[in-house]
Amino acid sequence: MGFKDEFKRYFPERRKRCAAIIHTASAAAAGAAGATMVPGSDSIAIAPVQVAMITALADEFDIPWTDAAVRSTLYATLGTMVGKGGANLVLRWVPVWGNVVRAAVAAGVTQALGWAVVKKLETEGRLV
Question: How far is residue 56's CA from residue 74's CA, in Å, rounded to a whole number?
């Protein structure tokens, strides 16, 4: 029995599996943003987490990846960096609090991106 089968066994409802994927990615994004010391470098650490989250969500809906889907996902991920830009400008060099705010913003943006992807996959059945 593989990981995916075990995951489905413990979370029989698709919505709960999506929530688990999104919450895990949000926690990872918050950790990555909070751990970075150089302002702006958190975007580099968060992008792979968000792409992995979208990949897992697409896999949950049995949606195959195409070049266009990968491109649009990367553009969406780059778009989320704009949301974090405000927090970086305001609290760029404040020790401790700057990291806390960057972590909170990263978690919120990742949550929003994840649920937007789930809504698109539920309504349209595709990423692009």
Answer: 15
Structure confidence by residue, pLDDT tens digits, 78-115: 655 655 565 555 555 667 777 787 888 889 888 988 99
b/e code 63-78 from CB counts within 10 Å (16+ = b):
beeeeebeeebeebbe
Hey, CA dihedral for 67, 117, 119, 83, is it positive or negative? negative
Range of the domain at 50: 3-124
Count of the separate structural domains present in the chain? 1
CA neighbor of 80 nearest in space, from 105, 109, 103: 109
